[in-house]
Design brief:
Elements lengths: L17 E2 L7 H14 L7 H11 L3 E3 L2 E2 L15 E2 L1 E11 L2 E6 L2 E2 L4 H13 L2 H8 L4 H13 L19
Parallel strand pairs: 1-5, 3-6
Antiparallel strand pairs: 2-3, 4-7, 5-6
Helix pairs in contact: 1-2
Amino acid sequence: MGLLPADLPAGVLAPEAVRLGQRAVDKVDALRQSGRVLTDIGAVEAGYVEAMLAREELVTTFVGEGVAIPHGTNEARALVHRTALGFLQFPEGVDWGDGATVQVCIPIAAAGGEHMALLSALAMVLLDPEQAERLRSATSADDVLAVLAAAADDDDDAAIEPDPTVTEGVSS
């Protein structure tokens, strides 16, 4: 069982949260665009974007292979409406500091205990050079979704356990 889509709630990474061919003038611009994706899809309140910037000041979200996984501070979990991912591709790259260049940002919004597991699982998937390259060169949302699903299916350790506080079969 892989990270996407089976182990996460439906719609965690929706096609409308995938933005290809983006440009950013710097890391702050890329982080703001990443946060805006989560805001646009209704996953977070607008204040979450500032929390993403604050997190980046504490520790870099760059994980290697041209990928960053921006997310908010622990205190910002109250601003999260639902667990969600975004995907932003910056083909020209963004200077992330300390010699790092980012071509892919995968912003995360998670209010519950799945936050660290989601970060860990994504990092494991994205550190595969072949998968990271496929994401950097993806040409459609379907390509992105397929890469993440296939990569996670290849690594059972990347699976995320369901949140035990969520009752299955209950719709809101």
